[in-house]
Fold this sequence. Notes:
The protein contains 5 helices and 37 strands.
Amino acid sequence: MGKNILRTTLLTAVLCLTLSCSQAILTIDENFDTNPGWEGVNNRVECEDCPEITQDFGWTPGNHNGDGAGEISGTIWRSTTPAYYALPLGEELSFKDSHSASGKISVISTGSESYGFYFGFFGEERQGWRVWSSNGVRIAAMKNGKARFHLDYKTGAANGAILNPDLEIPGDGSVHTWELKYEPEISVADYEWPDDQIPGLFRGDYTNTHHDTLLARFKEIEPSMTTEKLRDLMFICRDRGLVDNWYRKGQYHLWNLEENIEEIKGKITFIFDGEAVSYFLIPGHQDMPTAIDRFGIWNMQIYTGSMEFHLSDLIINDQKVDLSEDPHWEGMNNRETFLERDFHSRHNYGYTQTNWAGETFGEIGGRFWGTEVSDPLHGYYATDIGKLTLDDPIKFSGVLSFVEGAVDGRMLLGYFNRQEKMAAIEGEYKGNPPHQFLGLEVMDKTKHGYNLAAVCSPRQDISFEHRGPVMIPDRVQKPFTFEYDPNAGIAGRITVTLAGDTFAKDLSKEQRNVGSEFDHFGLHNPRKGGKYVDVYIDDMKYSSRKIKEQVEQKKQGTVFVPYPPNGRLHK
């Protein structure tokens, strides 16, 4: 068939060349066997002064914690290059199996403001942010001499949950005790409310209810209630799995009322210096395929920054670990020096000679970062399609492979207006979806997996991101189709199919009346702070008013920038 053939007759192609295809909408067939020459803007970014870092952790004969010679310690760096030092368990554990560990820990600030690491149970097969098949404790975000604990787990199907307790560890080398345990048989239904009035405080708004809102409602019943007393009651509810707790940067608490408590089973508890906090697996996660086969220390696989740590007095699954001599645990990149090339906004997408999504080499895609609106390193990789509007029937299809995904990661594929995409904007959440965009978005939903979403955004304040099938970065090739019919539904309808699953969403009359003018089709990263996704696409067909011969061919280029402090300049 050849490269970039047109699904139209030769006569139509000749007319398009001579008449500029002012009316005809063509279907371009692109298999990416060779470079299509699309335009790239900030889609490939490199550091011009990449720092050299040294991972240096594992067993040492030291005695920082006072338990005698021998400890697991050293300096560990955050990096997208995986690194760990771990004890192979000799078996694979799932979330149907109990497991526990305890010991002593001390950490020392290295002067950076952005660093940390994990310790706990994990599987070695799929690393990343966060590691698949894991149940661990994260120490991160050292500020004012202290670092905060985070607890998170992830199944072998890439979904999970996180607890952000109000627990901190000083970075002064002081020694502290800890214990992590998982009890699969404990159910939320086994517990009672510490105060029977608490469920009624939610009054139907079961999710993200502000602590102050609950306090005001409680005071209507009991005027003597204080924010501290209510906080303590809510923490008891959280540890019993009756409510879920999320806060933003420790400034306030948002509470979610759990509805189907009889389905919630599997309790994770972390005890630090005698203070215990707990949370539960999300229903269904206990049955997910999970392969936890190691206990140890692994790096946070994001950005950069280092921390010194010392672990001792270890007991793993009720067995004391002898650290008086080298235990010869398994190490991966834990004693390595290399150039750190990765950082936030280091996009690396476009045409690539790989075949994640196709049968032969050649496809488009790569790594997409979510950038803050103030970050100039946002861009696209796309082709000129002339002009299409919401009055036109628009369709594109292809094969997609979702390779990697980090929390809050996103990417977009579809039709957009170049001027609107690159325009200056203000406001933390005003960048995504972009004005005048029509297409698909791979977007994060940590508890259940990512989703493929249909997006229509004539203007952002009247946009929608309609979630469709759940996706995980399983590296499986999935065919997809996006079709917009201006004559269907209320004011036009989007229909999306992914690997046989179909969903649809109607445009509103306001969206249709505002309208859009699309002049490019392709890939771009969202202007909304977050992490990254690695997505590849091949064997595409897309609507256009220009044939390939009318589009100026571009060469792929790279933008070189200074390495940002702590790996992320714009926050």
